Amino acid sequence: MRVANELEAEIKAGRLAPEARLPNERDLGDQYGVSHATARRAVKELRERGLVVTLPNKVSYILPHNGQNGP
After folding, report:
1. How much is the pTM?
2. Residue numbers of the chain with a pLDDT score lower than 70
3. How far apart are CA 12 and CA 27, in angstroms?
4. Is the dihedral of CA 28, 37, 6, 8 positive or negative?
C-alpha cells in the first residue's frame, strides 16, 4: 500500500503526468526498494483506484484526472 499511496501522490501532484507511461514493475520495485511482486500489487491497486490502465502488453499508463479523488 505504501508504494501505491506514494505513486498516487505523485500522480495527483502532477509529477507523473496524465497519459505518461508508468515505469515497469521491475523498475518500480528497484525505485521503491521493494520486490517486483510488491510493485505488481501496487500497480494493481492503482488500477483499482482508477488512476492507471494496463494494456494487454503489460504497459501501464496514467489516466487523465480532474484533481479530485478519482479519475
Report:
1. 0.80
2. 66-71
3. 21
4. positive
